[in-house]
# Entry
Amino acid sequence: MKARDYMTTNVVTVGRSANIAEIADLLRCQRITGVPVVDGDGHLLGVITHEELINIFLPHYLSMFDDLAFLDDLETIEAQTMSEIEPTLFLAEDVMHADPHTVGPDTSMMKVAAIMLNNKHVLLPVVDEENRVVGVINRSAVSSAFTGAAGEEDSE
# Structure
């Protein structure tokens, strides 16, 4: 079982100057978990998932707590955050996970699964020798590979 057998080849990508409002809309409309960020020649620059988008809006100090139950109401924090952040001003290059893990088309699905689980990735770009995106693999593809589920291309 190789990455090429389970990757999505009709890859939705964005350029470095796409703003996060456009990216969020793209993820929602395409029903995908993330997108590779590429240059004009299709070379991988980074990856943006819902996690990177959400992190923009969450105050960093909230990540220090495992349980936020002691906070009765976050409306004040939410209102302040939303008034300070203009989504169209943040670009892909500002929020992308640069230098992401990648795999090649001939990478074994066992290695793909290990990389995804060990690094908590929901999406892995599949790149060629020149670091051009030729596909993506998501968790659904990995579970399909191991369970024998239909190998048709899923959305990311």
